[in-house]
Amino acid sequence: MKMTFRWYGKDDPISLEYIKQIPGVRGIVSAIYDIPVGDVWPFEKISALKKEIESADLELSVIESVPVHEDIKLGKPTRDQYIENYCQTLRNLGKAGIKVVCYNFMPVFDWTRSQLDYRLEDGSTALIYNEYDIAKMDPLKGELSLPGWDSSYSKEDLASLFEAYKVIDEEKLWEHLAYFINKVIPVAEEEDILMAIHPDDPPWNIFGLPRIITSKANLERFIQLHPSKHNGLTMCSGSLGSDKKNDFPDMLTYFGKKGRVHFVHARNVKLVGDKSFQESAHLSEEGSIDMYKVIKALHDFEYEGPIRPDHGRMIWGEIGKPGYGLYDRALGATYLNGLYEAIQKSNQV
Ligand code: DNO
Fold this sequence. Notes:
The chain contains 12 helices and 12 strands.
C-alpha cells in the first residue's frame, strides 16, 4: 500500500512541506476546487496542481473528487451534457497522468454529521452523528452547514432539489448510476484511470433521500454494473463501518480479491447506538473497527494502491477544517504504516 494524505490545495492551512515531514507519506490526494460542479476541468489547471505537488517532492496519487452533477443522479435530460463534460475531465486527467479518481453518488449531501466539535473524554473534539439530533434537523430551514456539503446551494435550490428527488427511489437511483457508469467507464479504460466510487456516509438514507452504496450486497451490485476493473471502489472503513451490519475487513478482502479496490480511506468509528457514532482516533481499541484486520486484509491481497488516513480529531489545540487537521491524521498515517510493517515482517520469518 502507498500512504497518501488529503490536501485541499493552496487554501489548506496545512502545507505540502508539513505533509512531506510525516514519515512514510508519499502521495497527495487533492482536487481542483474552484470549478463549478459539472464543468470541464481544464488540463492546464490539473497540470499546474500536479507540478506544485511534485515540486514538494510528493506525487499526485488520487483525485478526490470529481463531483457528479445532480442532474446525472436525477436522470434529467441535461445529464448527457454533464456526462460528456465528466468524460472530458477524465480525458484531461488521463493526459496529466492521473491514475485514480474518487467520486460519490450521494444525492444532494456528501458526508453528514450532527456535530463537528463534540468533546471527547480526553478533551479532543471529534465529528459525531447522533440519529436523534439528525431526525430533528431540517436542511430546508438552513439549519445545517457542514463542510462536506456544497455550500453554493441557496435555500431555493435546495427546496427544488428535494422536490425533484421525491420521485427518485433507490431503484431509480441505481438506474441513473448504471447509465452514468456505462458512459464513463469506457473513457476511464481508454485513459487507464481507475474509478473508485466512495461509499455513502453514513450508509443509510438521510432526510428522505435515497442512498445505495451502503453494504456488501450493494457494492457487489455496483461492481456488476460494468465488468471492467476500472469500475472500482474506494473502501472507506469509517463510512461502511458505521453500520454495524457491515463487516469492513471482510468486505475489503472480498472486493480486494476481485481486484476492484483502488483506494482506501482508513479511520475508526465508535458505534454508540443503532445509527449513532463518534469518530475516534485510528487505534483499534479507541473505536469499533479492528484496524489490524483492515491492514492485514490489505497486506494479504497484496494491495499496492493508495490509502489515506481519514478524518482525525482536533488535538493539541489545533484549529482547522473539521476532520482534516494535521496532527491526528499524521498519527493515523504513522500507526497504519506501523501496523503494515509489523504484519509484513512477521510474514517474512
Ligand atoms: C469526507 C470524504 C468525502 C469524500 C467524497 C468522495 O471526508 O471522505 O467527502 O471525499 O464523498 O466523493
